[in-house]
Write a structure and sequence with these properties.
heterodimer; A: 2,3-Dihydroxybiphenyl 1,2-Dioxygenase, domain 1; B: mainly beta; about 0% helix; binds FE2/S2 (inorganic) cluster; binds fe (ii) ion
Chain lengths: ~300, ~140
């Protein structure tokens, strides 16, 4: 099935102002603000939607608030949408909303939706680097380090759930929706890639205790490592509490930086994820400190060797 | 002042003043750094004349709980929340009622109120090391 990735994540929160401030500080663009919530977009039109947990328009909560309330995937075309409706309609209620979103629950009970993707071409300056031994990309006399550089997340990357039965959750996505497992943490769960994208994962599932269910984290793609570091550094300077990163994952190769958030799970910045096709043979390793990253750093405030601390 | 009673936990000298009770928002939380330098390694929650304290370290991944300075509670102020993965904790006991570490508890910091002053142990059980940090995915 030609699912191209995530289109939108919808959150039900208990502190709307803090959540809106979080997404704004994260760098997304606010395109809709009403008393009941807001919509924030990345450069390609993918989005995070935030509403108060009590908002009647939200899908039913499946975990205490704050938490994620709906995960909406983008599909290539109307035919794919109909194909999904026919497939999932076999064994569960599926509804088509006036917003064009086909809605149901996955086999864990997580509300999911599908719509013809909102993704649009990204209009942003190219990222150019100079590497010895390679043809220079950045023109002579064009400088790269700009303290005023605007870092707007480019695209919704991935979402991660704690699920009570990871094998069952995985089967739903692979057998019913045609996702591929790209890699697997044997003590946690699979990284999943839908057929309409080569990106390593847009979904990662983590086995959790039976009572535990809900968001682990979500992230948008930044342009590259430089933008990720600058955006994360600014985010921390604005008072958000980082807890892991910056570093670089091994599964997917994406650079990462995770922060606590008022959404019920962590908010991450990521960049530069691997692409895979169907010839890729999934790796399976135990998740631990060695297999989770190639390197890891901690934030620190600006410093100069010429400063008074020298 | 450090004295002969230092090793006796019941001696008043075993506790040091943290702040005035009236400096804590009633119904709210506040983070502190026990060494005076670095990130907040414990936090207190005040309800009227009662103050409870906990190490700022989630039993799940061993990371700090708040998403911004002093934001340790849910909006209604009824629960302590870890904003890494949404674990909820009982304010009075630190017991995790929901989340990946359900059934475990936050490490309590004994608190005394003396003449309107909030007192904490002179020696903090976890030393000055803070929270060990992320242990992985699950
Ligand atoms: S680290 Fe606190 S819930 Fe995961
Ligand atoms: Fe991630």
């Amino acid at each position: 099935m030609n699912i191209v990735g995530l289109d939108s994540l919808v959150f039900g929160v208990d502190d709307l102002d803090a959540s809106i401030r979080c997404l704004a500080d994260y760098g997304l663009t606010c395109v809709e603000r009403t008393p009941s919530g807001a919509v924030f977009e990345a450069l390609d039109g993918t989005s995070a939607v935030v509403r108060h947990a009590s908002d009647g328009g939200l899908a039913e909560a499946f975990a205490p608030s704050p938490n994620i309330r709906e995960t909406i995937y983008g599909v290539a075309d109307q035919a794919t949408l109909e194909q999904i409706g026919a497939e999932l309609g076999k064994d569960r209620p599926v509804t088509l909303g006036s917003d064009g979103v086909l809605r149901c629950k996955d086999d864990s009970g997580i509300p999911i939706g599908f719509r013809v993707t909102c993704r649009r071409p990204i209009d942003a300056p190219p990222v150019l680097i100079n590497v010895p031994g390679m043809k220079p990309q950045r023109p002579v006399n064009q400088v790269a380090a700009d303290p005023a550089m605007v870092c707007t997340p480019r695209s919704l990357s991935h979402v991660v759930f704690f699920v009570p039965d990871v094998a069952k959750a995985e089967r739903f996505y692979t057998e019913r929706l045609g996702f591929r497992v790209t890699d697997r943490f044997t003590n946690a769960g699979p990284f999943l890639r839908p057929a309409g994208t080569l990106e390593h994962h847009c979904l990662f599932l983590i086995q959790a205790p039976a009572h535990m269910f809900g968001l682990n984290h979500f992230t948008f793609h930044m342009a590259d490592a430089n933008e990720l570091m600058l955006a994360g550094w600014r985010f921390q300077n604005k008072g958000w509490k980082g807890f892991w990163g910056p570093g670089r994952h091994i599964m997917g190769s994406n650079y990462f930086w995770y922060f606590n958030s008022p959404f019920g799970g962590a908010i991450e910045f990521d960049a530069d994820m691997d692409l895979h096709d169907d010839t890729w043979v999934p790796r399976a390793v135990d998740a631990n400190a060695e297999t989770s990253q190639t390197f890891l750093f901690d934030y620190r405030p600006l410093w100069s060797p010429g400063g008074k601390d020298h | 002042m450090a004295g002969a009673n230092e090793s006796c936990t019941d001696a008043p000298e075993a506790y040091r003043p943290l702040c005035g009770l009236d400096e804590l928002p009633d119904g709210g939380a506040r983070g502190f750094c026990s060494s005076g330098q670095g990130s907040d390694d414990f936090f207190v929650v005040r309800r009227g004349d009662t103050v409870v304290g906990y190490r700022n370290c989630c039993p799940h991944n061993g990371v700090a709980l708040e998403y911004r300075k002093d934001m340790f509670l849910n909006a209604a102020g009824t629960d302590i929340v870890c904003y890494a993965h949404g674990a909820h904790f009982d304010v009075a006991t630190g017991y995790c009622t929901y989340g990946p570490c359900a059934g475990e508890s936050l490490e309590a910091l004994p608190i005394r109120i003396e003449q309107g002053r909030v007192m904490i142990p002179r020696t903090i059980a976890w030393g000055s090391g803070g929270c060990p940090g992320n242990k992985g995915w699950s």
